[in-house]
Structure formats: structure tokens, C-alpha cells
């Protein structure tokens, strides 16, 4: 597909997503039972890093589509993946992630334009003049391909050294272009896509220390001189040797006070059980306490594919089961808890079940019906989730009200919430197949 056709296709997708968003907005206060919807209720996004090679795995995409409202390509937008030979761009893997996200109404963060690592070998062979041109051409080529489609870009990544010096890291850009390369990169990025948020991104900058202060001074200088920078990303990779710092929130706030947004961009916390859950809670609470903290991204969907898999640092284990850290994050975001948690489904004895039937079928679509049945106690209301297969979309719904998070439809009663013990009600919906005849998955019914 050439670029013009691709843009038209994306524009059509964006229109469908916008229409779904209008429906979702009407019920956003009700749809707080996933990470993405709960964060949206707090005015934030909650995203994850995504690898294109895992999108063919059903459990991976089901968890991604159900829980997250934003994606960051893990490696697919880095320089070696997008411009392996000078002037020759390849976007196949990155496009796969962007297309998947857009089809489900997710935002996309771009990662990353200028970084010392994962560079093709030809970059390091260039002299200063050629390197400056190549850097600007790379920014223009990559951002131009996705112009208007990426919410935030990590323009420059990890340009400062670890340790107490606060010095710049040695790289082809630093060594040949000097300190000014970061400013040049941000100015080139603004020219390439004026609507995108432009971020500086780094690690070990989570608390107030020499490295974070060096970044702070750079951002302060940029904002004072009108250098285009909109946000600072904090990678927030934590473990027992590098725990969540006690001044984490204060550090986020001091950057926000410079007039830039802050984003938690690559969050993972090694550990397990209640200790890991408590640390995740600290991070979420810190972001919520800082008005300009616009969102959080965990660096991966499942422990089994994490770059730190031995430390089990994510919210879903290797079998995609929700960990205590997941429940803690959802609770901290104000979402519905799991069974037995305060404020969550299952707090009392009322229960319900939901079963699905296809009631009509034709070439381009079908009608589905979900039967909700109360358990041994009467219920005052119920909630059921329906996860649609890729490409399918809901065009009509009856006997219920729906909110959408990606391809997950959360349905609540319109007039039929109260059920006597053992009695049932139904809601129905019409689906446009868009080439997929697969059946939707109905999640557990929750009663209140």
C-alpha cells in the first residue's frame, strides 16, 4: 500500500475510533474495570510496550487489547529497525503495531529517534557534517511517515551518563556534534510533526540526583530559550538494588514545574506478591499526585517476554494471570477491584453468570446475544465484558449500555439490572465482521 492510500486507510480507521470514543465517553465513569479505562477516568493513559512478533499470539493480543489504552513499540521504531541503510526506510514491523493500535482506539508513543544504542553500523562511520544531516533526515523520515499519528515521541534517549558527574554520555552524536545535538534533534522533530509531543527520555533519573539534575538543568535551559520540548520521560526500572526513591513524586513535580509534562515511560518493578504490589502503588500514586503526569507505560505485557523476565517485573505472569501488582495498580487508579477486594465485585454474596449465543449470521456480520443469570441471591445490577476478535466492530446494541476500551466492550443494564435469584435477562448486539468470522469472548459476569 503506498503512503497516500495508507494515510486514507488510517484516516478512515481514526474516524471509526472517534465514533466509538463518543460512545465510550458517555459511560467513562462506569468503565473502570481495566487498566486503560481506570487510568482514563483519572485523565491519564495506561500503556504497554509491544513487540510486533507477539501480536500473533492470542493470549498476548487479548490481554493487550483488553487492558491498555496506549502502546509503545519496543524495538520496531529504533534506528537499526527503520533505516538499516542510509536513506532506505523500512516500516513493516512498526506499521503492524501502529495499525493494530489504531484499529482498537489506542494511542501510540514513538520510541526512539536518536539514541546511542541499536544504531546501524553506517551511522558511526560518518563525519560530523554527514552525521548531522543523517540525524535530521532520520528524524524527518521516521516522523514524516507517522505524521499526525503518534501522540508522543522520545526524541532523544539516554544522553546522560550514570554516576555523580551529570556529564553527557559518549556517543557518535555527542562526540562529533557536541552538546548541541539534543537541541538540534528537538528542533528537527518539531519541524517534522508540529502536533506531536516531544520528550526527552532517560533512566536512573527517578529521584533527585546528579543525573536527574543534569537533565533538569537542560530542560530548564530549553524552556527558557524556547527550544521545543514538551515532556520528560522517566523509565522507572526498579528492583531491590534500585528501589522506588522516596522523593519520586517530588522529582516528577519539579520537572512539571518547568512547564513540561512528565510521563512514566518504561515501568517495571522486579519482585512478587505484596511487596511488588506496594511498589507499583507508590508509582501510580506519585503520577496521580502530579497534575502534569499524563500517563504510565509498563515495559511489556507479560513476565515471560520481559527483558528482565527472571525478576518477574510486570503485571501479568507468564500465563497472563493477573498478579497482586495488577490488582494494586487497578485499585490505585480507582478501578474496580477483584473478588474479595474492598469496593470490588464479589464483596458480598451476589453472583451472576454470562453466556453467549450467536442468534443470526450473514456474510458481513452477525447478531450476538449474552444471557446474564443471577446466582443464588438477588442482584441489583450486573456488568459483563465482551472482547471482540481483531477487525470486528459493534454497530448496534440493545438492552444494555456499552463503553469501549479498544476492542473490549463493557456492558451494563439499561432497564434490566435487578434480577431475582436464578432469573435471567439478555442483551444483544450486531457485529460487522470486516473479514473475521471468529466468535467474541465473554468475560466473567460481576454482580452488585
Outline of the structure:
The protein is of the alpha/beta class.
Number of helices: 13
Average pLDDT works out at 89
Largest sheet: 8 strands, parallel, barrel
The parts where pLDDT drops under 50 for at least 5 residues are: 1-5, 11-31, 338-348
Q: Structural class of the secondary elements?
A: alpha/beta
Approximately what portion of the residues adopt beta-strand conformation? Answer: 15-25%
> What's the end-to-end separation, in Å?
49 Å
What would you report as the Rg, rounded to the nearest angstrom?
Answer: 23 Å
Q: Given the C-alpha coordinates, what overall shape results?
A: globular
Number of strands: 18
Instruction: Order the strands across the largest sheet as they lie in space.
Output: 1-2-3-4-5-6-8-9
Helix content: 25-40%
Structure in words:
With 448 residues, this protein is of the alpha/beta class. It is 33% helix and 24% strand. It is built from 13 helices and 18 strands. The protein has helices spanning 3-26, 35-41, 58-67, 79-82, 92-103, 121-124, 128-145, 172-177, 181-192, 210-225, 248-256, 273-289, 324-332; strands at 45-50, 70-73, 107-115, 152-157, 197-202, 231-234, 237-238, 261-269, 293-298, 352-362, 365-374, 382-387, 393-398, 401-405, 408-412, 424-432, 441-442, 446-447. The strands form three sheets. Strands 1-2-3-4-5-6-8-9 form an eight-stranded parallel barrel, surrounded by six helices. Strands 12, 14, 15, 17 and 18 form a five-stranded antiparallel β-sheet that branches. It has a four-stranded antiparallel β-sheet with strand order 10-11-16-13, with no helix packed on it. Strand 7, helix 11 and strand 8 (261-269) form a beta-alpha-beta unit. The radius of gyration is 23 Å and the shape is globular. The N and C termini lie far apart (49 Å).
